[in-house]
Amino acid sequence: MSQTDRTNYSKFITPDSPGERVRLRGCEVHVVHHDAGEARGDHTHEETHVVFVRSGRMRWGVDGEIRETGPGDTIVTPGGVPHSYEVLGGEPARVVCLVAPPEAGSEPGHE
User: Fold this and answer.
1) CATH fold of 29-111, please?
2) Which of 4, 105, 60, 43 is nearest to 13 (CA)?
3) Cα separation of 103 and 93, whole Å?
């Protein structure tokens, strides 16, 4: 996944794009591809994440509540709240994730 500034970024992100991160004032936007079967157990972030599912099926757990999600669903994980995800089925999932405030160390030039 590449990180960019406002002068060097992909203006169009296609279904084949590996991902993109654009830093905006007060937030970041991640366009993320999750492989089939990918999973991450309970974890937290200091930042709030708002996740928009574009394609694929995922199981999300947020603060002990678990839901299956698909295209058009939105998941909100407030800062400090445990959450997890798993890609369901044999297809990858793509999400758009709005992160506020931007993650620590995410300034252009940091990976």
Assistant:
1) Jelly Rolls (2.60.120)
2) 4
3) 22
CA distances from 32 to 1, 6, 99 (A): 8, 19, 13
Tokens representing residue 108 in the block? 């252009």
Amino acid at 49: H
Amino acid at 4: T
Q: Give the count of beta carbons closer than 10 Å to the beta carbon of residue 57.
A: 17
pLDDT digits (tens, 9 = 90+) for 2-17: 444 555 555 556 667 6
